[in-house]
Amino acid sequence: MGRAPCCEKSGLKKGPWTPEEDEKLVAYIKEHGQGNWRTLPKNAGLSRCGKSCRLRWTNYLRPDIKRGRFSFEEEEAIIQLHSILGNKWSAIAARLPGRTDNEIKNYWNTHIRKRLLRMGIDPVTHVPRLDLLDLSSLLKPAAAYYPTQADLDTLRALEPLAGYPDLLRLASTFLPAATTGAAAEQAQLLLPWLLQAQMAQQAAATMAQQQVTPPPPQAAAGEQFLQASTAACQMPGLVHASPTQQQLAQHPQDHMAATCHGAVQPTSYDNQLDYVPALMQMAPSDASNLQQWSSTVSSSNNNNYNVNSGVSTPSSSPAAAGQMNSSSTTTTTYGLNARGDVVITADDDAAGLLNMHLSELLDVSDYM
DNA sequence: AACGGAACCAACCGCTGTTCA
DNA sequence: GTGAACAGCGGTTGGTTCCGT
């Protein structure tokens, strides 16, 4: 025998709450405290379902709710926490005093998500995506209005990549930080390398298909996320503890969110150029630790390549999980070894064919 | 001023894990 | 042990407001 029904399903009021109803609910909870939502509506004289009362209280009437516009620090924390936790709105809300999960969810969907898309950043994976972004926005903002000859050269150099969306994404992780001086020159050097890598990967994928080998076992998406997050957090030079993060770090369960700050998000998002990938923020002295980082390029059967940069990917995101698990033919890792060399590794039967050390082409330390 | 589309957000829906009779 | 209700959560809806034409 189970419990008695909580309430009659019919005859209960739905829709927006009136001030009178709010008053009744607040008065009752002030006197009796919250809890036992089943009997609360009847005792408080409300023609509402207990669930509706609970939602109204927790999302709107609770005295500790902070209303009004989100501050910059709150917005920053939301983006960062979302990059770690995914759509775990309650978990995010627990780290933002006075904000409800519903409010954060609404704010994400109506403000932050759209802005990230405008910036060319996938709001699910937090990875820069050039298919969401105009090529011209890779350049520094002023270039969009007054392009220099170098800017135009960069655009021309990018043109051959137009048919390779994932290489464009990879390029986007390098180019924004390399707008001046030697770094810009090195970025130009990167472009032919990207094309070379693309062709080599296609050749390896073709060979792998001809050998008709089963796809390599894939780690669970959550496991991959934890590994990626851990690796990101272990990278020196990535810790960027703003006051918000220091507050978060007071709670052990927030350790990852706090220490990963620099690896995941910079402090400002008004400009996509501020969204510098973790790699760009590293000091040259950290090069010895680079073996812990890699960018993964996974190829699917239809040759639609996916690039995950060094930023962490939420495990709870179905899209992200799908992206990880959809790889079937060849998984190629774009990484950096202990010397700071760019290394491409295909972890299937063709792996041996595709280990390229690129220190001759590109001095990666200039980007760190 | 009127209209239509976009943006916003409170509230609901449906699912899942937990609690309890 | 069982099953129904509870509590909590994320996704979605629909009413309202804003804004451009």
Automatic annotation (TrEMBL):
Domain Myb-like residue range list: 9-61, 62-112
Compositionally biased region (Polar residues): 313-334
Subcellular location as annotated: Nucleus
Record-annotated HTH myb-type domain positions: 9-65, 66-116
Keyword Flavoprotein (UniProt): no
GO terms, molecular function: DNA binding
One annotated Gene Ontology cellular component of this protein: nucleus
Keywords from the named record: DNA-binding, Nucleus, Repeat, Transcription, Transcription regulation
Region Disordered, annotated ranges: 308-334
PROSITE patterns: HTH_MYB, MYB_LIKE
Annotated protein name in UniProt: Uncharacterized protein
Organism name: Oryza meyeriana var. granulata
